[in-house]
Write a sequence for this structure.
């Protein structure tokens, strides 16, 4: 059998995961990038993970992706966000040494059999029989392939703004690929325009660290990958400073020189990551905003001041930076800038992220209107798996909202589209209590194993972990403890209740695994991580039955397929507006249709009836 | 899509009769009838003519263009003189046009639902409308859900969205400059909704009791003919169930069955200024009962009504056999059937005076939400598990889904982003 061949265009976080995933599944991959040295570069903030994002990193990791391991090779400060809240909403996050991260990613790509890295500019797609069949490079050479995955970030009509200056380009220093863009515009896909910004980078040695509040990492770092045990790199602290009235005056005075406020930019920016101009204009009553000073590496000497992204002119950036405590003498190594770019409305994609209008072409990452390394990585991996399955005529690999944040994100994208750069939040996941960062491997690794996505090393580590978990669960289920005895041991239960299993006791509020050691001595024989894991599971034990009922309901809706040729315009009882939305989005299941904005249960009934009517055998004449 | 038409007002003689036309041919029907199409949403006086140019009637015509009308389609309403002959003539003219037909019962509402023109809790509205077997059920569903229940549900929803957003901000933006402890505000919001829900759930019993009978008070000056009217009605009602002297001699209750609707008619003390303390107490009692009644009927033999007679009350001239003007007569029976029909129609269209939970599943939805809010409040108290507070709030919202549309994470995010400066 001829080996399948997939081309991945773009060497960012989506591109490398796509290439690596396809390679793990045994496909020959050509990774085409403008700049080999730029593979794995972090163009925005030097951190991986966080709330919602940490879940995505763990899920990518559970499917044997490279982000988590690379990040643990480069992490210089670890913080588990929401440590004081329940495990369902805890988000592992780490500051990166940019250079170490890039090296780790490049090593991972290089070390993987089946990935051919090509430095070059993709000028156009090869199209035959209405499907993408490969790419044409700028030098005229053609690379045929079975599928093409575009992970080209902000290259579509990207414009960089620094103050009133503007120039074409993706991130700083990258060329924009114009010809390829034209091909996408010619497909007449629905498009939108977004913007995003970065802060000026500061020279570390020009900051007066001694005057600033130090933000150390956690004493016990929580790693990003299931396979990592402890940080590799030296650990450092970040620092916190604040803007003040003086800063705000300067920004206000120069607001008209800002690209975003001077009317240069009309793309929509993320509300959760506003520029300093935005913060001051929109929240005028706040007299101070927090800034995290994040070292970009152990030796690189630059600092990322998280919280003051801007598109003001360079001179103004310097002026307001100098008004901030600790930054009075700071040097700007690279000015902040805003970038505006087009994205493809992801409602033009199918559930596997393939462009419906051009089979053979998959899109992942910022080009779909998302933001963030983690979101891009997860889509890259997911698109690649589906591309591989498609070229092999295997079943599509779909993840449900009920089992993963990846499934939540894909469903949100293809059914709701985006109106601002899409970022993951834990609030987006309605099954949040069961979709935890800590159990991403239990949720996804077996699925990954079944399709050949997960390598042997991880599969064995996972099996071993499952064996330990099974063992401790059987100890907990097996130990029956009388109420009096439990009460005597100090557990918050009444003396007179029925005897309960240790597992049930663990599910009682405020009972931890340590509290059971005296009652069930075998527990002491298990390692800390295994003990902690059953403890985390027990917290939500009482909630899971109900979530499972709802998940089953959703899965049923997800399994109710809407025929691709259903003519919504002909359905009586659908409003014109909904009918247009449905025609544009073409939801493939009832669950997807239900998530379309403005959808009503009445309209869903109409669609269900139409599906049923369609199934009815045609009456003979 | 057919263009449908029907008389929107009750059949029979009346001051005004409204014929509503909805659908793609509505505007052409209007031009054919009136010669032109009035400016939208403006009441315009027009002469309606038959095919041969003869005048059918002169009336107020209002045009509601598609997208801004009750049904969502082009709608034209003709407000005609309330004559049976006029209505029949105009209906006949409409029926003769191309592409039009008389509306089926409830069809305008059905179209409004189909076109998303009713921001009702759609599942229930649709299910109720389709399932409804009687006019009573249909009107009740529409009335309750189109009005009071929906606005209450929206109020609860916005409080829960706000509470959910406050909790979400502390979870999803924990590394930002956001309030660390939002529990006082969240507790206030949840407690408020819980209080409302409890009142409704408790009120459900009252609604059920109300199902046992509506109250209609008959008021008027002494000797206006109230008692005669009551007696006349009682004689005519085969289903008369009881005649009870009230706790005072001044309020007499008669239970009658008005077309399947249990109604208690209250005969009250004649309203007048008096120095007699006992009579005054009786009048006060009459007024109090009247205030809590579902409908008040004022009788007057001379056509002069007391100032307390309001817009929602029925005003009738009694003793029509004596003065010859239009009205009712307990002696001849004139107008009594119409009065009973009017009372019935008014009661049917009335929201029960207490409670929004008029169906068991409304109550169940509210009770489900209340349970979740209880658990959310408990979770706030036990701290450390904000995600459980959030979980219960979202389940409470889900429980209220029966009463309203879904609550979406985008609602939470919108609330968050408009209230907090997120983005470090």
């Amino acid at each position: 059998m001829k080996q399948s061949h997939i081309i991945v265009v773009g060497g960012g976080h989506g591109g490398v995961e796509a290439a690596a995933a396809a390679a793990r599944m045994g496909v020959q991959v050509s990774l085409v990038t403008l700049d080999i040295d730029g593979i794995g570069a972090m163009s925005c903030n030097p951190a991986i993970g966080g709330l919602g994002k940490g879940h995505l990193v763990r899920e990518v990791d559970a499917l044997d992706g490279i982000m988590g391991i690379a990040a643990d090779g480069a992490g210089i400060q670890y913080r588990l966000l929401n440590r004081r809240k329940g495990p369902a909403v805890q988000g592992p996050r780490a500051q990166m040494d940019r250079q170490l991260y890039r090296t780790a990613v490049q090593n991972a790509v290089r070390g993987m059999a089946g990935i051919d890295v090509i430095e070059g500019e993709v000028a156009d797609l090869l199209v035959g029989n209405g499907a993408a069949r490969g790419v044409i490079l700028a030098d005229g050479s053609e690379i045929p392939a079975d599928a093409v995955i575009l992970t080209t970030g902000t290259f579509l009509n990207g414009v960089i703004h620094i103050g009133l200056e503007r120039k074409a380009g993706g991130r700083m220093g990258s060329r924009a690929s114009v010809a390829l863009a034209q091909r996408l515009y010619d497909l007449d896909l629905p498009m939108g325009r977004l913007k995003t910004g970065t802060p000026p980078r500061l020279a570390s040695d020009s900051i007066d660290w001694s005057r600033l509040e130090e933000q150390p990492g956690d004493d016990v770092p929580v790693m990003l990958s299931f396979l990592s045990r402890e940080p590799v790199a030296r650990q450092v602290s970040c620092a916190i400073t604040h803007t003040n009235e003086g800063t705000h005056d300067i920004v206000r005075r120069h607001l008209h020189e800002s690209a975003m406020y001077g009317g240069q930019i009309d793309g929509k920016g993320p509300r959760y990551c506003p520029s300093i101009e935005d913060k001051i204009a929109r929240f005028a009553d706040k007299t101070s905003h927090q800034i995290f000073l994040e070292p970009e590496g152990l030796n690189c000497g630059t600092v990322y001041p998280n919280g003051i992204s801007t598109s003001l002119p360079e001179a103004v950036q310097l002026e307001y930076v100098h008004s901030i405590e600790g930054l009075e003498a700071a040097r700007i190594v690279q000015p902040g800038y805003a970038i505006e770019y087009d994205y493809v409305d992801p409602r033009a994609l199918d559930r596997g992220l393939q462009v419906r209008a051009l089979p053979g072409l998959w899109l992942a990452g910022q080009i779909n209107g998302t933001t963030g390394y983690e979101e891009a990585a997860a889509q890259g991996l997911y698109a690649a798996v589906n591309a591989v399955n498609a070229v092999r005529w295997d079943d599509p690999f779909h993840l449900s909202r009920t089992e993963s944040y990846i499934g939540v994100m894909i469903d949100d994208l293809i059914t709701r589209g985006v109106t601002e750069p899409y970022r993951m939040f834990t609030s987006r996941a309605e099954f949040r209590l069961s979709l935890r960062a800590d159990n991403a491997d239990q949720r996804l690794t077996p699925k990954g194993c079944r399709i050949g996505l997960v390598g042997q090393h991880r599969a064995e580590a996972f099996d071993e972990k499952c064996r330990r978990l099974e063992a401790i669960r059987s100890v907990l289920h097996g130990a029956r403890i009388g109420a009096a005895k439990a009460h005597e041991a100090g557990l918050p239960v009444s003396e007179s209740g029925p005897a309960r299993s240790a597992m049930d006791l663990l599910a009682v509020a405020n009972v931890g695994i340590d509290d059971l050691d005296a009652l069930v001595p075998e527990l002491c024989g298990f390692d800390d991580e295994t003990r902690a894991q059953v403890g985390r599971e027990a917290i939500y034990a009482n909630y899971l039955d109900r979530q499972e009922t709802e998940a089953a309901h959703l899965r049923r809706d997800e399994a109710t397929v809407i025929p691709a040729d259903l003519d919504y315009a002909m359905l009586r009882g659908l409003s014109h507006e909904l009918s247009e939305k449905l025609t544009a989005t073409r939801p493939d299941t009832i669950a997807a249709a239900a998530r379309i904005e403005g959808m009503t249960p009445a309209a869903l009934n109409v669609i269900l009836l139409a599906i049923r009517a369609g199934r009815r055998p045609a009456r003979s004449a | 899509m057919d263009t449908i038409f029907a008389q929107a007002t009750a059949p029979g003689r009346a001051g005004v009769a409204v014929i509503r036309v909805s659908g793609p041919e509505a505007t052409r029907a209007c031009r054919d009838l009136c010669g032109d199409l009035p400016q939208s949403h403006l009441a315009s006086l027009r002469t309606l003519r038959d095919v041969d140019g003869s005048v059918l009637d002169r009336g107020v015509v209002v045009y509601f263009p598609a997208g801004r009308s009750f049904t969502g389609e082009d709608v034209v309403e003709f407000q005609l003189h309330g004559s049976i002959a006029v209505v029949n003539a105009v209906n006949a003219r409409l029926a003769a046009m191309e592409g039009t037909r008389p509306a089926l019962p409830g069809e305008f509402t059905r179209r409004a639902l189909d076109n998303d023109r009713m921001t009702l809790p759609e599942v229930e509205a649709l299910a109720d409308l389709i399932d409804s077997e009687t006019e009573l059920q249909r009107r009740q569903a529409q009335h309750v859900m189109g009005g009071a229940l929906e606005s209450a549900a929206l109020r609860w929803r916005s409080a829960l969205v706000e509470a959910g957003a406050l909790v979400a901000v502390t979870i999803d933006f924990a590394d930002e400059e956001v309030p660390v402890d939002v529990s006082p505000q969240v507790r206030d919001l949840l407690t408020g909704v819980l209080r409302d829900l409890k009142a409704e759930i408790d009120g459900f019993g009252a609604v059920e009791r109300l199902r046992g009978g509506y109250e209609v008070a008959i008021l008027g000056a002494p000797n206006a003919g109230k008692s005669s009217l009551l007696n006349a009605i009682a004689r005519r009602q085969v289903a008369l169930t009881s005649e009870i002297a009230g706790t005072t001699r001044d309020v007499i209750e008669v239970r009658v069955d008005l077309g399947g609707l249990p109604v208690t008619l209250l005969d009250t003390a004649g309203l007048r200024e008096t120095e007699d303390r006992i009579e005054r107490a009786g009048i006060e009692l009459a007024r109090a009962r009247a205030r809590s009644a579902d409908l008040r009927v004022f009788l007057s033999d001379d056509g002069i009504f007391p100032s307390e007679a309001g817009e929602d009350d029925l005003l009738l001239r009694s003793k029509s056999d004596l003065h010859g003007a239009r009205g009712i007569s307990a002696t001849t029976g004139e107008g009594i059937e119409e009065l009973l029909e009017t009372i019935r129609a008014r009661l049917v269209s009335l929201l029960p005076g207490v409670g929004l939970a008029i169906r068991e599943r409304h109550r169940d939805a509210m009770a489900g939400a209340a349970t979740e809010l209880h658990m959310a409040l408990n979770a706030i108290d036990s701290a450390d598990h904000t995600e459980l507070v959030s979980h219960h709030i979202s389940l409470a919202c889900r429980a209220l889904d029966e009463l309203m549309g879904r609550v979406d994470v985008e609602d939470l995010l919108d609330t968050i982003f408009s209230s907090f400066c997120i983005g470090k």
